[in-house]
Amino acid sequence: MKRWWALMSILSCISANAAEPIDYPARPVRVIIPQGPGATTDLLGRIVFTHTAERLGKPLVVDNRPGAGGTLGMDIASRARPDGYTLVGVAASMLAITPHIYRKLAYDPLRDFVPVGMFVLAQTALCVNNNVPARTVREFVDLVKAKSAQILMGSAGVGATSHLGGILFATLAGIPANHVPYKGGSSIVAVSLGEVHWTVAPLSAAMPHVKVGRIRCLATGGDKRSIVTPDLPTIAESGVPGFRFYGWNGVIAPRGTPKPIIAKVNRVMNEALGSAELRKHFFQLGEEPASGSPEDFGRLIRDDYEQMGKLVKLAGLKPE
Predict the structure, then answer these.
(1) C-alpha span between 134 and 198 (Å, rounded)
(2) Residue 87 pairs with which residues in a beta bridge?
(3) 124-238 adopts what CATH topology?
(4) pLDDT tens for residues 9-38?
(5) I need a surface site. Which of 74, 157, 252, 320 has the fewest CB within 10 A?
(6) pLDDT tens by residue, 127-171
């Protein structure tokens, strides 16, 4: 019986590989990134795409299409020919937040694309200025409750992931969020300088300030502890049950892209993500490599789309 199951497993693997297109890719593959050069998705994506291209045998050529909060690049990608020669490198905000804060989009983020795979789980962290007299999440919540009008929350702008993450934390912890929006990465700098007291920020963005003693991270926002900072507890285990808030980056494709091509890119990208060299590079940047099936990634996109829609309403944001 055991031999029969082993045989069936081998045949299944052979069948799966046989279903993949042998001649794909026959030429370079364009990867649209709806952000400018040097942005997080671009920076991390290029690392993954380089390692993936080495295994595919053809270049993955990044095509940066920034503008309008990522909607410009997404629109171009949605109208691309679904032949496997156009892929899209995305961040969670592009699929899960943007659709809730822009009134009219030329594409449907859930219907006009198909998932290929995730490549980064971007941990968030509850970060405070180093002079804030709180060493744990519980101590911080008590501090805010005692001095509610004096404690300010910074974010990277209205509707940004740090804004929505802060709103979620404040709501679940039962504290006010005295919101001070900044532009982009300047919010984490504002926390380090003491202009505001706390934020829920990407862990990788906070780490340089942690290392020089200007910011202290109290806990991370994932379902489990980060492999980058295993000594830090999660926010949920620190007294705010139900808190789950993190970002991600991944690859999608225009709807109609053949499934065998999706399967091959996913398999090869997962192989690249398992390489020691890539993982070391990501860890140095404070990021966690993540892999899985297209189906896993699709479920994550849908779940986050629903969660972010609720948070946008909770924050009182209106589509523009």
Answers:
(1) 11
(2) 31
(3) D-Maltodextrin-Binding Protein; domain 2 (3.40.190)
(4) 444 444 444 466 779 999 999 999 999 998
(5) 320
(6) 999 999 999 999 999 999 999 899 999 999 998 899 999 999 999
